[in-house]
Amino acid sequence: MNKTEQSILENIQKAKDGSQIAFSSLLDMFWNEVYAFQMARTKNENDAEDITIRTFSKAFDKIDTYDESYEFKTWLITISKNLHVDLIRKRKRSLLDEMDNHGDEVKKVLDESPSVEDQLITEQNLANLLRDIKKLKPHYQRVINLRYFNELSYADIAKELNEPVNNIKVKLLRAKKLLAEIIQKN
């Protein structure tokens, strides 16, 4: 077993124990591969990004079910493929059931206290930070604004955007990573 495989297995174990840092590391390691897989399937940036976010959200939610006899990447790609199939089915159903307007209820979940990343982002020079935030895609700008400027909890953001809480957590994680990259470039 090489160092990378060992590192992945260690991060998976830490993630199973609830480590947010391990989740973040796994997200960083596999984001591009899952996103590229979905871009090839959907040929649409928004769909690919949305499915990728939901893939990691579901994977992190179900991390305890991961079987280490399979590659982690394969497990993620399988989840991603299934989510894409579900999306296609849902779109077909919604076309047929256009008159039916059923909404999913958002689960209320206790919010976590701000992480070190959250505190660093909050402490940045406001003018420069706003300039950098405007460089993000609109949906990332929105979750950052709701979280840090409106000071909404994950549950409140989920309700506002009509998305599952885990999707919000992954979007915020991704938005913070992209924002940190923009800040470092400056």
From TrEMBL:
Q: Where is the RNA polymerase sigma factor 70 region 4 type domain?
A: 131-179
**Keywords attached to this entry:** Sigma factor, Transcription, Transcription regulation
Q: Which residues form the RNA polymerase sigma-70 region domain?
A: 33-93
CDD domains in the record? Sigma70_r4
Give the source's domain of life in one word.
Bacteria
Q: For this UniProt entry, which segments traverse the membrane?
A: none
Does this UniProt record's set of keywords contain Nucleotide-binding?
Answer: no
**InterPro entries per UniProt:** RNA_pol_sigma-70-like, RNA_pol_sigma-70_dom, RNA_pol_sigma70_r2, RNA_pol_sigma70_r4_t2, RNA_pol_sigma_r2, RNA_pol_sigma_r3/r4-like, WH-like_DNA-bd_sf
Checking Gene3D superfamilies in the record gives:
1.10.1740.10, Winged helix-like DNA-binding domain superfamily/Winged helix DNA-binding domain
State the NCBIfam families in the record: sigma70-ECF
Family recorded in the similarity comment: Belongs to the sigma-70 factor family. ECF subfamily.
What is the protein's name according to its record?
Sigma-70 family RNA polymerase sigma factor
